[in-house]
Structure formats: structure tokens, C-alpha cells
Amino acid sequence: MSNLPEIRITNCHIHTFTNDHVPRDYPYKFLRLFKRAPILIKGLAGLARLLGQHPVAEKLDRLYQFQQESARDSQTAVLEQVKKHYPSNTRFVVLPMDMRNIDHGPVPTSQRDQHNELNRLAMNPDHLGTVLPFATVNPLASGSAEEGLRALEELHFRGLKIYPRMGFAPDHNVLMNKVYPVVDKLNRPVMTHCSRGGVQGKLVSDHTANRYTEPRAYIPVMRKFPDLRICLAHFGGQYDWKVYAEGREPSGDENWQVQIRRMITSGDWPNLWTDISYTLFHFDDYIPFLRLFLLSEDDEGERLRSRVLFGSDFYMTRQEKLSERAVCFRLRNALGEEVFRQIAVENPEIWLGEREG
Length: 357
Ligand SMILES: [Zn+2]
Fold this sequence. Notes:
The chain is an alpha/beta fold. Helix content is 45%, strand content 11%. The chain has helices spanning 31-36, 39-50, 54-70, 75-83, 111-123, 144-153, 173-185, 206-213, 219-224, 238-245, 256-266, 283-295, 299-305, 324-351, and strands at 10-14, 91-94, 131-136, 159-162, 190-195, 230-236, 272-275, 308-309. An 8-stranded parallel β-sheet has the order 1-2-3-4-5-6-7-8. Helix 2 (39-50) packs antiparallel against helix 3 (54-70) and helix 12 packs parallel to helix 14. The protein binds zinc ion. Zinc ion is lined by residues 13, 15, 313, 316.
């Protein structure tokens, strides 16, 4: 982006965790074989190509890339990969996960070690000022809240990441009574996964997972903590954008993308945010809608523009066709310099509590 004006982008949503942070049997027991020998996927891709199954081969190639990313032996190695796609002054909100107690088997690395490694990454002279580490809490695992608070209070992590789809409500009593009060007092933001896809507790039904994940599940949290800045990641998720784009649910009442827009533009929830990570990596399908929402001249457009964050979801995006770099350029081009700057530079600073919004 060298011939564009120098700006400091903050990518509000990336992951650097590795196989060691993922439960042994996730997502399926049979994949254990592939995790240990990802070259098998490469082999299958070659076979599919031989058989003329090019779309299958392409999918397998991307799965292989994804495997390669998560099989890197350290969070540093993953970070170095994502950094290649961005200007050198770009900052990254790095989101860990605590995937214990979701019935997918044991997790090799502890939550504490994951936080400590992330802390070392943030302190590493090569990355100083570019890594904004978040703490994670999974209230299903004992001691998780305490460890999350240690990362926030002692390691000065920049915010909290939660993932209710694993099997808990966002107003779980541990979060409401132990965790949010501290996050609120420290003036840190919350990032949470809001899409029908992603990691789910093995014994959690889709219906229940959706009740834990849907935008309105945050109403009790926002009522009790009106100053807490909560970002519903993925803008409702790819599935709900697809349903919206195809006009399959005209009322929009059960569509999470519509729900998020309505909640933000209503003005009732002034500290509710969303990010465009992953979902907008299906760029051609959804950018016309995002443009319409964000470039609208009315009050609703203005309100929405002030609450959308740029994020990518690296390395989940390695399963998709377009690179981070390509999407970043296209987004900047499609939204225009002013709106891109708002969602990628100014809004993240407000959400992170670095400046008044
Ligand atoms: Zn993510």
C-alpha cells in the first residue's frame, strides 16, 4: 500500500494459536490422522485433480494451507505470516481461545501458558507495539476466569475474548459476577464470536449454540454493564449474510446481520460494535451490501459507520480464496479512503479505549 497515504491500521481480529491450543479430537476424531500427517491432505488434493475434481482439489489445497498455518510450532511463526500482508506499522488484536471442557478431548497447552506465550509475543522487540493481546475466559473450565483476570490485571492485556458457542450464555454467572466487572473497571473491550459457524461444544445442539450466540443474548449483559464495549464478531456470520443476500427471510427478524444493524442503529445500545472479519472475505458476494450499509448518508448509516471494526480472522481465512492483502486493498477501494480509515484506524482506537468516541 506504499503509494497510499500512511495510516496505522488496526486489525481487530486475528488468531495465532496453534495445534497445541486445540483439543486433540477437534473437530473429528478421524482428523487426528490428518493433523499428524497433513501431507495426506496434499495427496488427496493431487488425487482429486487427477480425477478432474478441480473444485474439490482447490478446497483441499486451502485446507492444507490452513493446516500448515495451525501446525506452525509457535504463535510467533503464525504472526509473522499475517504481518506479510500488511504495512509494517499495522497493529493486530490477537485473540486466544480456551477450548477445554467442550467434549472434544484434552488441550495440550494450558490457558495460562497460552496467555504467557502471547505476552512474550507482545513484548518481543520485533513486534513491540504491533500486538494487542486479549485474554480469554471459558466459564466451563475451572480456574479459567481467574487466569483471564490475571492476564488482564497483571499482564495488562488489552481486552477480553469469549466464545459462547462452545456452550455457555454470555450472561453466565461467572462472567456477570467475576469477569465483566473487572473488564468494565479497567475500561477494556470485549470481543465475542457471533456467527452460526465455528467451534461448538460436542454435546451442544445447534439450537442451543445459536441461543448462546445470537445478538439478543447480549441484552442482559448490556443492561447490567452499559459502558462495556462489546464487539459481535463476523457481523452475524457468513450464513446470515447469505440468507440476507438471497432475500430468503424478508422480515429479517431472525437474521443476525439484520439484528446487529437494528440494535446498533436504534441508539439503545451505544456500546455495541461489530467486526467484518471472515464474513467479508467472501468479498464479491457481500461487499455491495456492506457498501450500501456503510456509505448511506442518513443517521443510521452514520451510526453504523461509527461502530464497525476492520478485522480479518487470520488464519481462518486461509481456507478462503482471497489473501488478506487482496481483501484489504479491495475493501479500501470499495469503501473509499475516508470510510476505510474510519473502520480500520479510528474506530479500533475508540473500541480499544485509546480515545474518546
Ligand atoms: Zn475468529
